[in-house]
Write a structure and sequence with these properties.
The chain is α+β, with helices and mostly antiparallel strands and about 180 residues long. The protein is built from one helix and twelve strands; from the N terminus they run αββββββββββββ. The relative contact order is 0.24.
Length: about 180
């Protein structure tokens, strides 16, 4: 009887091995990697100040965005054709030593840009509104130039001297 139990046990084990072996040898595995490409950081540089030059009290003075040498200019460098969000921080006044101010304004057509598809400052790719955030794409070489005009409004009793205020351009990738 012990031999019979032993034979049944051996046959059961042998059947189990015959059935189980093909399944375990048929198992395979594959591997993939998680990857990411981090874009180079954006570089934003002020190239030229917005220069109103000599201003006469009581007479408004405008500088057009297409006026080479006087219009403010920014240069943006980043990843080719990447979508970016632009946001200007614009002053409402130019200050003179914190004792006097002169109003300054920017219309919805006081800025323009060229992403390499236009003709530069005098024939840009497009006109933009500097008063609100906007979304554009860098050019095919990853560059963009922006030009900025504006108008100062001196009063008839405007204090003489030099006036200044910062114009800041903040640029970020949108991820699109």
């Amino acid at each position: 009887m012990a031999i019979r139990k032993f034979l049944v046990l051996c046959l059961t084990f042998l059947c189990f091995m015959i059935i189980a072996v093909p399944y375990s040898s048929a198992q395979e595995s594959g591997t993939i990697q998680a990857t990411a490409t981090v874009l180079a950081a954006l570089a934003v540089r002020g190239v030229n100040n917005l220069q109103f030059e000599t201003v006469i009290p009581g007479i408004d003075k405008a500088v057009d965005k297409a006026t080479i040498g006087l219009a403010g200019e920014f240069e943006i460098v980043g990843h080719d054709s990447a979508e970016i969000s632009l946001d200007f921080t614009l002053p409402d006044s130019l200050l003179q030593d914190s004792t006097a101010f002169m109003r300054v304004g920017f219309s919805n057509t006081d800025a323009s840009y060229d992403d390499g598809t236009g003709g530069g400052q005098t024939v840009p790719s497009g006109v933009i509104n500097p008063n609100g955030p906007l979304t554009l794409r860098l050019g095919p070489t990853g560059t963009m130039n922006l030009w900025m005009g504006g108008t100062v409004y001196p009063t008839i009793t405007q204090t003489g001297g030099d006036y200044a205020a910062d114009i800041t351009l903040t640029v970020i990738y949108t991820g699109n």
